[in-house]
Amino acid sequence: FKQRQCLKVSRSAPICGTGRNGVPREQLNENTAFIDGSALYGSSFKDLHKFRQARTGFLRMNKFNNQM
User: Fold this and answer.
1) What span, in angstroms and rounded, lies between the C-alpha atoms of 10 and 31?
2) ∠ CA 57-67-59, rounded to 5°
3) I want to staple 15 with a disulfide (CB 3.0 to 4.6 A). Which of 26, 42, 43, 67 is the partner?
4) What residues does each domain of the chain span?
5) Could you tell me the CA-to-CA distances from 58 to 3, 54, 65 in Å, in that order?
6) Is the distance from CB of 27 to CB of 11 less than 8 angstroms?
7) Torsion, Cα of 49, 53, 54, 55 (10° steps)
8) Tens of each residue's pLDDT in the chain, 68 residues
9) φ and ψ at 14, to 5 degrees?
10) Greatest CA separation for the chain
11) Shortest CA distance to 25 belongs to which of 36, 34, 16?
């Protein structure tokens, strides 16, 4: 922080209708949720077909010891 006493920061955009008339200010969350499903669905079109049924698109299931 070399010779600085303050950090400049900016706030996220407020949610409409907040921050006025006694309503606490709420920030808009600009982060997005991203789930990496490549372990389940594959990371390529070729892998996708190995893991999913062609007719229904459902995930393929294998029996193990005669159980699902």
Assistant:
1) 15
2) 10
3) 26
4) 15-61
5) 60, 8, 22
6) yes
7) -170
8) 567 778 787 777 888 999 999 999 998 877 667 788 887 777 888 888 888 888 888 888 888 888 76
9) -75, 155
10) 70
11) 16
The whole-angstrom distance between residue 17's C-alpha and the CA centroid of its chain comes to 26
Contact 58, 46 (CB under 8 A): no
Task: Give the integer Cα–Cα distance in Å for 7 and 33.
Answer: 28
| pLDDT value of position 54 | 83
Residue with tokens 């190995």: 50
